[in-house]
Amino acid sequence: MEYDHSNTNGQAFLSLLSVSKDQSPPPFLFKTSLSLLPLIKLWRQYETEANPSRAATAKQLLAALEKAPELAQPSLELATVEKHAALVEQLLIPVFPAAYWEDIYAAAAVPFQLRPFLASPGFNRLNLMGDHGFNAGMNLAPAQLLLGRNLNAYSHILRRFYGVETQFEFPLIFTSADAATGLARHYKVNIDLRFIEIKKVGETKPLAPEDIQRLLANPSRLEMWFELIPPQCFEFSGFAVFSAVDVTDQEVMSSLKNDLLEKNAVISPVRFQNLQNKLRALLRRPDVKLGLAGIPGAQNLLREHGRKIGHSFILNETCRYQCSSFTGSVYDHAMQHDEIVIVENLETYATPTPVEAEIIKQGVKNIFIAPLRYEDQLIGLLELGSPNPGDINAINSFKLREVLSLFAVAIKRSLDEMSGRVEAVIKEQCTAIHPAVEWRFRRAALNYLQHQQDGVVAEMEPVVFDEVYPLYGLSDVRGSSTRRNDAIRADLSEHLNLAREIILLAHRHKPLPYLAQLGYRLGRQLEKIEAGLGSGDEMSLLDFVRREIEPHFEQLQSFSGALREKIAAYRAALDPQLGFIYHKRKDFEASVMQLNEAISNYIDAEQEKAQAMFPHYFEKFKSDGVDYGVYIGASLVENGKFDRLYLRNIRLWQLMLMCGVARLVEQQKPRLNVPLEMAHLILVQNTPLAIRFRYDEKKFDVDGAYNVRYEIMKKRIDKAVIKGTKERLTQPGKIAIIYSQPREAAEYREYIEYLHASGELSGAIEDFELEDLQGLHGLKALRVKANLQTAAPETLESSATGKQLSREILLTPA
User: Fold this and answer.
1) Is 298 exposed, middle or buried (0-12, 13-18, 19+ CB in 10 A)?
2) For residue 469, how many C-alpha atoms fall within 13 Å in the half-sphere facing its CB?
3) What tens digit of pLDDT does each residue of 602-651 get?
4) Lower CB count within 10 Å: N or C terminus of the chain?
């Protein structure tokens, strides 16, 4: 009968691993004894060999054995072996060659008892075994080790007495500290059982094929093995040979790979320290330090974009802020050439920069820098540093190449997780952020998280943009407050008239004095509406109707069918959600909303194109019209590069945008329920200011007392009137440009002249001085009429993308 036992070893090992470390160890019930008889038999074979040297040695040793007959007994005590230690060592020469005795890691031990009776000096230095078995540091717990001993014993019995080849084995890995470096070293212990004999001392029942199949399918169920193959029926004698092989590199490499695949492999301080320790063990350098720098989406801007992960030499706070640039440094070389850089001694480096000097101040003289790439994109750097020159070199660092890709994966995962955490911080602290300045908030959030990781209690750092140029625009419904009040008065009049008609009709059916009094009061309220509405009048009038009039409708509708119809018509006229008449106001609000949506969508579309010209901060608000603010300057862009060309360009774009808005309003008029007019205004300020993000209000505001004047102007200029008249500056279909300095007017006159020529504007330029406003003096204005009939001509792209602004005008930096 043949059996397929191809997976026996795997099943047995998995069963071994499944045993809990806290589980009670299974008993080892086999009788074992130490015996040298298998070795003596080998020497007797050597005695008859043709090799004269080996035969002579065998005769000499066998002769010595005759003087120590106790060594030839079937069972030996360890004391007997110690008594004849020199002779035993000579007998073991076939097992442990004398030429290698000092260097090998080997020992001989009692079978299955893990009790060594002879060990090489190297084995003793490892301190792997004590008087009662293996010392601490094994990869298996006692319960797992004892289960393995039982399965090993049974595998020999199956092979010898049942003809079943199992070849059971499991790896024993022992960890000990290197005496020279103190670093962990890993050794695989192999057990050779060739010098062990098995003796059957009792009768066992035959095993059916299905019994063998059950045993092999359930290797960890020792009670089944004990029942089918009783351990008291077999004895083991002889000795086992242990040999240890240094597998530190393989173990560390395997452990590194597993660690780097874990979720928080490089973020957790404990895991980061473990990675550092394993790299030290792999390189056999106890002073090596690990550094990791992540570069999220910015290959050439390590200083600005780099994120320290756990620890980093180059992104150390001192180094980062002392070095204005990393250009020309060893890091720059590694990134630009995409190659590993190793400097064995930074103190003798030929072309040092401030970066190398700062690294040396951190106690690093020997450095290894490896670019980490993920999907062909540079995403980080692996740094290894040591205070000892030459610790890391081209030879020993070759081992690291196998794990560089895994470090790249770990950093990518770390950056992705960090990005998610950054987004969460931004949403919590700042709500929605304009894309143009998101980079600055990401930096602030990353620093905030870094402080948290370092255990520093800190708030989000201030986000301030200095030296930015403001632009402001407003398209406002002319007379919106008056139009809204008129709509409210019309709705209230209709509401009160319907109620009064019901009361008067009821009085005609039943002339009750109280109904006459209610009719009188309603009439007085209507007269009050005709005279004008004051603050709070609307709510008080509605409250009067609901409290004094409507409660009587239930009774009044019983007076007649006509009253029931009148009351039903009254209720039908009320808005079901609001509970009052909402006709005129609804038309007005719908018209305002329609205009606002059209203008807002138009500005959004044009704003996307303007962002492509040069990134800038943009904010927009809707009320009875649309107003927006633009801020542009060097501090708003990540690379800090800015030219006044872009300021001039955005100002011209804004003026063109207002022309487009004016045309759009004209196109929308026929579709409005209520005809509305809009006036358009631009505020110019040539002096840059600072804006600061207010975390409490979740918005930007001007920073500094002097800059507050700009905010005051934004709030008040729409009410400005021309000096010496009562005429409002803003007029329907016209664009007003308010300024303070003559050079601002000169600049805008150039734009107006060009837009006149291109057909965007028409009519003469009006130039006014404005009446002083509260806190504002000396303001002036230009006013021009937008061409409401034509679209942008061929010589000017309406989107103002900057590809073709004019053949006649050239915008140059001031």
Assistant:
1) middle
2) 19
3) 999 999 999 999 999 999 888 889 999 999 999 998 888 999 999 999 99
4) N
User: Which top CATH class is 250-453?
Assistant: alpha beta
What angle, rounded to 10 degrees, do the helices at 401-430 and 438-453 form? 110
Up-side HSE of residue 363: CA atoms within 13 Å toward CB? 6
Q: Look-up: residue for tokens 């507050």?
A: 708
Which residue, chain included where needed, has tokens 């998995």? 14
CA–CA distance, 101 with 90 (Å, rounded to integer): 12
Q: How far apart are CA 482 and CA 500, in angstroms?
A: 26
Q: What are phi and psi for residue 35, nearest 5 degrees?
A: -150, 140
**Domain ranges (residues) in the chain:** 25-140+185-245, 250-453, 481-579, 587-786
Q: What is the 3-state secondary structure (H, E, C) of 86-133?
A: HHHHHHCCCCCCHHHCCCCCEEEEECCCCEEEEECHHHHHHCCEECCE
Distance CA 706, CA 694 (A): 18
Q: Are the C-beta atoms of residues 152 and 236 closer than 8 Å to each other? A: no
Those residues whose C-beta lies under 8 Å from the C-beta of residue 199, and which sit 6 or more positions away, are 234, 235, 236, 237
pLDDT digits (tens, 9 = 90+) for 182-225: 888 888 888 888 899 999 998 888 889 899 888 888 888 888 99
Mean pLDDT taken over the chain: 84
Closest CA to 312 of 383, 412, 264: 383
Q: Which of 162-176, 277-291, 325-339 has the lowest mean pLDDT?
A: 162-176
- Residue 496 has a CB neighbour count (10 Å cut-off) of 22
pTM, whole model, 2 decimals?
0.56
**Taking Cα atoms as reference points, which of 529, 577, 565, 525 lies closest to residue 547?**
525
Q: How many CB atoms lie within 10 A of CB 201?
A: 9
User: Do 563 and 508 contact (CB within 8 A), yes or no?
Assistant: no
Least confident span in 146-150, 439-443, 691-695: 439-443
Nearest to 747 by CA among 658, 680, 651, 653: 651
Strands (E), 441-527: 464-477
Per DSSP bridges, beta strands 240-246 and 289-294 are unpaired
